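Usage

Read records sequentially. Each one opens with the input sequence:
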Amino acid sequence: MTLARAALSTLVAAALGAAALQAHAVDQTLPGAGNAQADQTAAASPRVREAHEFLLRQARQIRNRALREATLDLLGNRGFCVRSRVGVDDATKAALLAKLAAASLVNPADDASFPGGLSAGVFPPVLDAQTACPRLPMAFDSAPGSAFASHHGYPGGLPIHEANNLRAGLGLAAGYRRSYRGVEAGEEHGHDDDEAAGWMRSPFFIDQDVIIAAPIWHDWAKTLVFQWAADGSEFKELSFGGTPANGSATGGHHVLGIAESMKRGLPPAFVIAQASAHSSPTLGNEFKVVAWLRAAGILAQLDPVAAGYLVQDAKGFHLPPLRRLADGLDLIGAGQTNLLAEYTIHNLSDGDFTFSIPAAGDAALLIARLAPRYGFDPANAAVYNTQFRNPVLANISQERILVLYGNGGLAAVQAELDALRARHGF
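and closes with the structure output:
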């Protein structure tokens, strides 16, 4: 590392550190003070709008009416009702936290370290909390795709992240069909995106509804956990759904998203696929997906076994044998798992982090290096974040910046920023 790069890294780290400290000091029991500004930043980005329109086009193709309508509501309704939070007052929160702790699905030690305690982490603030329709604290399009210093950590990062994952899922499903579907007469042209006319007519069936809906629903709760502070940084996210002892804790958005799907009674194959984003339920990893489904069931205030999302035997909880997975052989009894292709396809589609997380770190360095050319100082975190960093990333994206840099050097990144500045993008 050169001395110049080392100095720049130190400067950026200091700025990010200051933003993180301020974010931790933010009252996370109240909706984010920067949510409205994030709405404006995302709304001004053509890249965010393109991603949103792509998600809407795909969602309209979902054939299951309940799943289609719920997905379109999530994407397009600023007043989306968070049903898993209906009637959840302080007493209910305390009772649900006690159930999570008793099942080793939350770490009690986090109560002392997380801003606002466990209650703020498991129940992030919503609007109209004590009404019949608690609402999202910001528009779906305004949310980031992850933590501030991680992938898609800018206003509009959520729809961009989801659009990329959905494109990956569609490609993977098409590849599975092309590679593994039979070549017998008639089967090659079977309508395997239609449950009624697909797997009932041909055993080879990958549910296109699940392929489309799972990437959209998996991350939607980032609108809750990654709210925006006034300085353009983000809330901290609580990891739960397990404890250090059982190793299944994961980002809270994952469990909260599953809870909402359960509360709405969405189909088990879809909900389990959604739950498989952070770990495919293959042998040795099924326990993680099971833990997240159990935690979500507690938050949705329903029995996941009775609702068909899990089964239980003398050895514990397992994924259910959906469709005909129990027809002729007990896979669980044989030491295997009840696995559908959709679970693994969705897990694989969520794998862009292998590029997008490094891209986030590199892009942070690159735009900080160029920021003084446009009159911005990374050390002035609030101005830098809200007027430069967030608009730049929402319009260009971290991934595009890294690809440009890799092929054209710093000059290519500067040209992109110059063009954005000329369009009054920041």
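Summary fields computed downstream for this record:
- The first strand starts at residue 239 and ends at 240.
- Residues 1-23, 185-200 have pLDDT under 50 and may be disordered.
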